[in-house]
Design brief:
single chain, 357 residues, alpha/beta, 4-stranded mixed sheet, 3-stranded mixed sheet, 9 helices, globular
């Protein structure tokens, strides 16, 4: 995540800001500009339009989920339209949310949407296609963010639909599950990054050449899932799994191995991007500097290993667990390399489509 500043006064801002706490300017996040911009400030005397970093309040407004989900993303409103219900690119992908009377569910919903906005921006930065159900009703991307206070909810993915149990936004509940499942890491953003890996599998591995490479590294993605699930929860991860998998959950089935590897690829790219923005990593580590092919992936890992080690040591100095408590063995890196290369191919296709429109 890059660093943001107020276009008017230069105040340092967080991705979530909707107001500059220094000069009071109303702000909105522009996906197009990848920046926080000021809403509605008038142009200078004699100047046509608006200065850079400012958008017209008659044309742009904040997402209708500003209050219910703390969403600070901009929405373009056409002249004469009622924009009171207009949702941004991220919020439009949410199909179901708690009702307005479910105060506990709405609190979790706001946290989940905040994590989802980080996910969606990263996918945009990587150039990955995001096709919603308005375009592809059968398998387009959508999210059901559901409260399990009264009904059982299973976090997962099916045919483009990602379901999240909003109880995961409650720290004690999430920590209890993390301990019970012997996980070193469990977050809302981590859930989204894992489930979006399932969504992208048929997009990134659409044909025999890619599928052949997948089978060599991950195994057969079409092997019986229920049998693998039963075996995993009965027997656990096999001894020595650390030499071939990024997590114990990845050992369950090739599909889960892919999703876990995909999630860790997103973890690494975003953390490197943030580190570069604050001069903890070279400028070339940012996501607007494409790391192409095998050499590009090698560069990412060469930057990541010393950074993650130093971040872990900083956390220990504060009495916290390691920030990145994972070991990336050789076979894991080869799996991640495939994720990287397939994401690059998809990004190239996305760019060509944009250039042709």
């Amino acid at each position: 995540m890059r660093e943001f500043i107020c276009p008017k006064c230069g105040q340092q801002l967080a991705f979530e800001n909707s107001v500059c706490l220094s000069c009071g300017s109303p702000l909105g996040f522009s996906v197009t500009e990848r920046a926080l911009v000021i809403i509605g400030e008038s142009a200078g005397h004699g100047e046509p339009g608006h200065p850079q970093g400012v958008v017209d309040a008659d044309e742009f407004q904040l997402c209708a989920n500003l209050h219910v989900a703390r969403c600070n993303w901009l929405v373009r409103v056409r002249p004469g339209e009622d924009g009171s219900c207009a949702l941004c690119e991220s919020c439009r992908l949410t199909r179901t949310r708690p009702n307005d009377e479910d105060t506990e569910g709405l609190a979790g919903f706001a946290d989940a949407e905040a994590a989802k906005r980080r996910l969606i921006l990263q996918l945009v930065e990587l150039g990955l296609p995001i096709i919603g159900r308005d375009t592809d009703p059968g398998s387009g991307l959508a999210f059901d963010l559901l409260s399990s206070a009264n009904n059982h909810v299973i976090t997962g993915h099916a045919d483009g639909l990602i379901t999240l149990d909003l109880a995961e936004a409650h720290d004690p509940h999430r920590e209890q599950l993390r301990i019970e499942m012997d996980e070193p890491y469990r977050t809302l953003l981590g859930h989204f990054r894992h489930e979006i890996g399932h969504y992208y599998f048929p997009i990134l591995v659409p044909d025999d050449p890619a599928l052949d490479r997948f089978r060599i590294l991950f195994g057969d993605p079409h092997s019986d899932y229920q049998t693998a699930l039963d075996r995993h929860y009965s027997d656990g991860a096999p001894p020595g799994w650390e030499s071939d998998y990024v997590s114990s959950y990845a050992t369950m089935h090739p599909a889960e191995d892919w999703a876990e590897t995909f999630a860790h690829y997103l973890h690494i790219r975003d953390t490197l991007d943030t580190a570069a923005a604050f001069a903890f990593a070279p400028a070339g580590a940012t996501m607007d500097r494409p790391q192409i092919g095998r050499a590009g992936f090698d560069r990412i890992i060469d930057l990541w290993i010393p950074l993650s080690w130093s971040l872990n040591m900083l956390n220990r100095s504060m009495g916290h667990p390691d920030l990145y408590p994972f070991v990336l063995a050789g076979p894991v890196l080869e799996k991640m390399r495939l994720v990287h290369e397939l994401c690059g191919v998809a990004a190239s296709h996305t760019l060509r489509r944009l250039e042709s429109t």
